[in-house]
From TrEMBL:
Enzyme nomenclature, EC number: 6.1.1.20
Residue ranges constituting the FDX-ACB domain according to the UniProt record: 470-563
Protein name: phenylalanine--tRNA ligase
Subcellular location: Mitochondrion matrix
Amino acid sequence: GAEVVFSVDCTKLKDYFSPEEKQFDCIYFNFPHCGRKAGVVKNRELLAHFFRSSAEVLAEEGEVHVALCNGQGGTPADQPRREWHNSWQIVAVAAGAGFILSDVHPFNAETIHGYKCTGYRSQDKAFCVEGALNHIFTRSTPLLCFSPRSCRIQLENQKVSFQVPQVLVDKINRGFLEPNSNHPVRTVKEELAAGLSQAFPVQDTDSCLPLLHQGHLEGVCPSSIFWITLSPEETPSPEEMSPGPANGPVLFSCADFCQGTEKNVPEGRHSPKQFYLRPSLLPHAQAIMQEGAFFPGTLRVLSGPVFRKCRVTPHSMPVFHEVLIVFAVSRGTESSCVQMLVNNITSTIHSLQQTGTKPNINLQEATSSETTELSDFAAFESQLGKIQYFVCMEADPPGSCEKGSCLGVIRTSQELVSSELVVVFASLNLDLLAMLLCGISDWRMLWTPDTRFLRQFPRGELRLFRSFSLYPPSYVHDVSFWVPEGEHFDEVAFHTLARGVSGETVVSIQLRDTFQQAGTGRRSLCYRLTFQSCDRALSCRGAAELQLRLREQIQQQLGVTLR
């Protein structure tokens, strides 16, 4: 019942099979080779043409299977692994056609009835298949579209819209914590709340927390906040600001601030009103305390996404979901109550842990010298007020709290309720907890639009995550530029720009060299950027295009001169 077609050119499949009439669920290519003593470059070209051809006749959820001899693929699955330049670089080649490596396993010829491997040096001779691997590729979702996006929200008595900062275009209003969500971040939050309710009365406060704040956040460096500014041209009169159906939405434009000062405001005009995306839920909790809407002994649980500019590091996130636990205790009992809270959180985490090892969650007393050595999460929290404890995973060596191991912070206040009570604020990073519990190594995977991610987490279940994009290729590019004389270079703004322009495919930015020109005093900086996507196909050409786009934006937005 099978149709067999001979003399098919694997690089022109659509010439033999019309995509309109037939799409394949699987395409197999066992041990491709150009013939005779063709080198790695020619065989890469063969694979590149084959993958592009396969993309034209493959079903949307189809698979491409490619078997290669041991070492040819150039992935960590090859043992021993060849040097990258001496391999077929199959994952990078497939990325050029929009494919990602979703699985790899040993090729076992004995399990295929009637299969015989021949073709050694284009002859009817067998070749060695010991250690051979079968690589299974699937389609990737496309890279992000960089078109601007507006967000419409309710601000006081009026609906307003603002332009979303480029780095947050795919992350704002995703609804991970909504009641109908099956995202692991929501499951972790619900399980934490359920665990807390077994030891404390719990009151959940999720709704009506404004996304925008106005003014300045005391103690916080302005360059680490996403500022949203009402442009002078759109500033409404007092009559226009009054609520009513006749009023249109107020348009906010995104602007960056350095050291708390605005970018060029036209002369003769008033400074626009300043708003910023909330970087923390702490001000909301403090407002609840001051309004008196609080019952001693009851835990208030607030949760939602928060937004912070930060450098590109493995554990730094420009947006994450925070859960803030607030409760008041009698003065003198705060230490024991905090320890009881952490014990409850630890036992809940252990009950949810999907891996074999149970992480040891402990408290580390905060010191001023520690904050510079911790993650961006903990360092930013220290700007919001004094921290008493860090909530950490036990690191190596024992007793330390290193970058990436800080899950949250705990602080206290003695001024918000009464002289008899102390208010405890415990802030936890839900995204890091979800990564810990589900074995997710890259925070960007939490935000992937690929439906294969959420399929692994049925409603209310936490499971060990299995990546659908294995051994993604990385590409290194350098950029150097002159900094305007006498001006401070905002490195956080540079990292944020790189995040946005690349669609979060820049995974590392390292300062490689600095140079000061004799005579003029001009300063030059050279950075090395590494591009890599955790969930999408990123080709060598695609990374080069992102690098060129980034160079243009660096010059336009940061005012530097490219070298």
